[in-house]
């Protein structure tokens, strides 16, 4: 089976979050894109952090309880997130997934964000590959 690369399954149409973005806009982006987290980048698309649904939930609860001003993504993002290369094999990433690992990975090429890859995308590709391999075995057995 040909080894699929991350670049073949990543999403490159999602706009990343910029530093200084108010949290309500971050929440809107997460909900509109149906993802559990997004990378936070500077003006040159260097990944500075990652913000998740869980980060937003906690920050919104705290800011509402304390009656503080509107939180910014910089206040809640996780700094130095795990990233992957577009040339990485889907199988290699799948083997490293597990409990406590991110559900969304920023894909970085030459230091700049080029997309994201989700666990769902990895699962989908593995399921397709399994189906194709099973179908191939079945067809060979009939010959």
UniProtKB/TrEMBL annotation:
UniProt keyword Transferase, yes or no = no
Which InterPro entries does the entry link to? CBS_bac, CBS_dom, CBS_dom_sf, Diverse_CBS-Domain
Q: Which SUPFAM superfamilies match?
A: CBS-domain pair (SSF54631)
Q: Which UniProt keywords apply?
A: CBS domain
Annotated PROSITE patterns: CBS
Look up the domain of life of the source.
Answer: Bacteria
Keyword hit for Lyase: no
Indicate the segments forming the CBS domain, all copies.
10-68, 77-132
Q: What is this protein called?
A: CBS domain-containing protein
């Amino acid at each position: 089976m040909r080894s699929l690369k991350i670049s073949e399954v990543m999403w490159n149409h999602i706009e990343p979050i910029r530093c200084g973005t108010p949290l309500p806009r971050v929440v809107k982006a997460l909900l509109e894109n149906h993802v559990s987290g997004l990378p936070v980048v500077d003006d040159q698309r260097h990944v500075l952090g990652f913000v998740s649904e869980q980060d937003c939930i906690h920050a919104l609860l705290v800011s509402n309880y304390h009656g503080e001003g509107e939180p910014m993504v910089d206040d809640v993002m996780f700094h130095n997130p795990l990233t992957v290369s577009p040339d990485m094999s889907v199988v290699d990433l799948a083997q490293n997934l597990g409990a406590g690992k991110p559900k969304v990975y920023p894909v970085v090429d030459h230091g700049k964000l080029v997309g994201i890859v989700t666990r769902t995308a990895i699962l989908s590709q593995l399921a397709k590959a399994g189906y194709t391999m099973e179908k191939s075995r079945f067809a060979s057995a009939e010959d």
